[in-house]
Amino acid sequence: MADETSGKHLEVALVAAERTVWQGQAKIVIARTTDGEVGILPGHAPLLGLLQAGTVQVRTVDDEYFVAAAPDGFISVANDRVSILAENAEMGHDIDLEEARRDLERAQATGSDTEAAQEDVRLAEARVQAAEKTS
Amino acid sequence: MPASLRELRDRKASVSTIKKLTRAMELIAASRIVKAQQRAQAAGPYARELTRAVSAVATFSNVDHPLTTEKENPRRAAVLLITSDRGQAGAYSANVIREGERLNQLLREDEKEIVPYLSGRKGIAYYTFRQREVAQSWSGDSDSPNFARAREIADALIEAFLTPTEEGGVDEIHIVFTRFVSMLTQRTDVIRLLPLEVIEGEEPPAADEVLPLYEFEPSAEEVLDGLLPKYVASRIHYCMLQAAASELANRQRAMKSATDNAQDLIEKLTRDLNQARQAQITQEISEIVGGASALADANAGSE
């Protein structure tokens, strides 16, 4: 199965809880899991990983490049199908950088005592990163 | 005469207003069902991928996770009722509450203590009226639930589940909700949320589809740790979306029959009104005729 399709492309789906954010074909997907960065090319071994920092970079078959924020998400790879699941996934170019920065500052200002506050900071960071890399 | 013309006319006017109202509510519900169904469909991919991933981890690793482990000798059971915020939906909320009562009865027979969790104002009203204690309740968006709300509920339930029983935790969690089968059929349903039975998904993978041998990063335990709470939230979201679509379908049906009833009533009142008017006219004519002939008789006598 993998041999027939490898060397071609990846079927990528970026899925949020309430909708599919992006779906298409890509040459490479780069994500940072809790163990470090992984680049996924066609023919990659099946993988299930938790995403850290929460940004995913995708180069599509048309050589377009985009970054998406996928805070608190995970990635699954099997048979050249890549699924990135995150409750609040967003495309980098949909995010307003200024607004994201303000959100991050506000989140950091409220402190990181509780788990919810830490999560807010993580989410804001991922959004800022995604927006920065896209622009 | 059964009722005066004026009374009948007033009643007809008020029934007509009610009919306009219920008709509008019917149309609103009908348009919202489509949206609710679209939302349920849009949430499908996430739930499907998540179920796949969780069953992959569960199949390839013999990890015991607290959320999947049955507790010995369960004593406290949480029951989450998903009802509507507003009425005018026929027996929708009543059905859920009745099914909940039945489940409570069953659990009590097993000598389990019930810890109620409620979603939707109707359920809350039912419980507060009977002055029962409620562990936690949510309301305000029963006809368009978002994922954040599902997540909130999931967090609360998981926390209760992971707390030891002696400290007020629960040993199992059930959900009572209404499954949207079709526009005509909605079924009240009970599922056990926790401890999880991972195998059962909305769409089990086909028999010939072999799950690939996954590598886990960082490890199967940690992946499972991250996935299961999401899975629980996704299940709750699914239940809430189904419930929302069912609520709207029920409301549409209830309002349709209310509109039909109003129409029947209007027809009956129109008939009564016509009859009363006719009776009045007949009476007036007979009075005139009677008066005229009495006059004629009087004239004839005087000549």
Automatic annotation (TrEMBL), chain A:
It is a peripheral membrane protein. GO terms for molecular function: ATP binding; proton-transporting ATP synthase activity, rotational mechanism. Keywords: ATP synthesis, Cell membrane, CF(1), Hydrogen ion transport, Ion transport, Membrane, Transport. Residues 103-135 are annotated as: Disordered. Gene3D superfamilies: F0F1 ATP synthase delta/epsilon subunit, N-terminal (2.60.15.10). It is found in: Cell membrane. Pfam families: ATP-synt_DE_N. Residues 10-89 form the ATP synthase F1 complex delta/epsilon subunit N-terminal domain. One of its GO terms (cellular component) is plasma membrane. Its main location: membrane. Belongs to the ATPase epsilon chain family. F-type ATPases have 2 components, CF(1) - the catalytic core - and CF(0) - the membrane proton channel. CF(1) has five subunits: alpha(3), beta(3), gamma(1), delta(1), epsilon(1). CF(0) has three main subunits: a, b and c. NCBIfam families: ATP_synt_epsi, PRK13442.1. Produces ATP from ADP in the presence of a proton gradient across the membrane. This is ATP synthase epsilon chain. It comes from Kribbella antiqua. The gene is atpC.
UniProtKB/TrEMBL annotation, chain B:
One of its GO terms (cellular component) is proton-transporting ATP synthase complex. GO terms for molecular function: ATP binding; proton-transporting ATP synthase activity, rotational mechanism. GO terms for biological process: proton motive force-driven plasma membrane ATP synthesis. Keywords: ATP synthesis, Cell membrane, CF(1), Coiled coil, Hydrogen ion transport, Ion transport, Membrane, Transport. It is found in: Cell membrane; Membrane. It is a peripheral membrane protein. Residues 241-279 form a coiled coil. InterPro entries: ATP_synth_F1_ATPase_gsu (IPR035968), ATP_synth_F1_gsu (IPR000131), ATP_synth_F1_gsu_CS (IPR023632). NCBIfam families: ATPsyn_F1gamma, PRK05621.1-2. Belongs to the ATPase gamma chain family. F-type ATPases have 2 components, CF(1) - the catalytic core - and CF(0) - the membrane proton channel. CF(1) has five subunits: alpha(3), beta(3), gamma(1), delta(1), epsilon(1). CF(0) has three main subunits: a, b and c. Produces ATP from ADP in the presence of a proton gradient across the membrane. The gamma chain is believed to be important in regulating ATPase activity and the flow of protons through the CF(0) complex. HAMAP family: ATP_synth_gamma_bact. This is ATP synthase gamma chain. It comes from Kribbella antiqua.
